[in-house]
Amino acid sequence: DAKTTQPPSMDCAEGRAANLPCNHSTISGNEYVYWYRQIHSQGPQYIIHGLKNNETNEMASLIITEDRKSSTLILPHATLRDTAVYYCIVRVDAGGTSYGKLTFGQGTILTVHP
Amino acid sequence: KAGVTQTPRYLIKTRGQQVTLSCSPISGHRSVSWYQQTPGQGLQFLFEYFSETQRNKGNFPGRFSGRQFSNSRSEMNVSTLELGDSALYLCASSLANQDPYEQYFGPGTRLTVT
After folding, report:
1. I want to staple B43 with a disulfide (CB 3.0 to 4.6 A). Which of A1, A99, A104, B26 is the partner?
2. Cα(B97)–Cα(B85) distance, rounded to whole angstroms?
3. Is A100 left (phi over 0), alpha (psi -120 to 50) or beta?
4. Is B25 in CB contact (< 8 Å) with chain A?
């Protein structure tokens, strides 16, 4: 799986958009980009995924650059409850050593301020 | 639909003892993965089970083992506990191992080894 690089921490004001970047310059053509988050002392929670196109769901939007070497997770109206560690993961189902496995990096600690 | 459940939520053991942790996946999910989370190493993949078979294994010593039952419930066992085994142990289930791939995590078992 391709390696990802994220800033260690970011701040955001409540009600504003939070834009979390992720660099995955070695991503392969068949690797998906996934975002998970982990609120303190809870299990990680799936947010969104994408392959090539931008994606949006009820939680967030995912913007993937045309060359796919980076992406941005957007929380449109951040709330205090969005304070968490956000993980960007790239993955391909290649069988074998990919079965059941997500490779988590250090993630970005997002702090939403009142 | 009920989420992933893990029992117990908290556990204190002494060095040299063994421990068994339990995970019940989301109904219909046949893949169960286990992760260890520590402040120093972050989230690390332990192993994955599918239809009672271990399909993938992370880089952990043989003291860490697991199994899966016919109802997809899974247990992991750690023998001869060491202080460094103190961690949050997370279980995750998924419907299938094919991209796009979503894992649903339980709340974790907090193990403290003294």
Report:
1. A104
2. 28
3. left
4. no
Contact assignment for B55 to A92 by CB distance below 8 Å? no
Q: In angstroms, rounded to a whole number, what is the distance separating the alpha carbons of residues B72 and A45?
A: 21
Phi, psi of A60 (to 5 degrees): -160, 175
Q: Do B43 and A43 touch (CB under 8 A)?
A: no
Contacts of B44 in chain A (CB under 8 A): 104
DSSP bridge pairs for B50: B31, B53
> For residue A97, which residues of chain B lie inside 8 Å, CB to CB?
56
| Separation between Cα atoms, residue B114 and residue B111, nearest integer Å | 10
Residue A2 confidence (pLDDT): 65
Q: Provide the 8-state DSSP code for B26.
A: P
Tens of pLDDT along A15-58? 999 999 999 999 998 899 999 999 998 999 999 999 998 999 99
Centre a 10 Å sphere on the Cβ of residue B77 and count the other Cβ atoms it contains: 13
Q: Round to whole Å and give the CA distance between B39 and B106.
A: 19
Dihedral of CA atoms A90, A47, A87, B100 in degrees, nearest 10, equals -20
Question: For residue B5, what is the nearest residue in chain A, using CA coordinates?
Answer: A43
Average model confidence (pLDDT) for chain B?
A: 94
Q: Which residues of A touch B58 (CB under 8 A)?
A: 101
Give the dihedral sign, CA B99/B49/B73/B75.
Answer: negative
Task: Please tell me which of the candidates A30, A42, A46 has its beta carbon nearest to residue B102.
Answer: A46
For residue B29, the chain A residue with the least C-alpha distance is A100
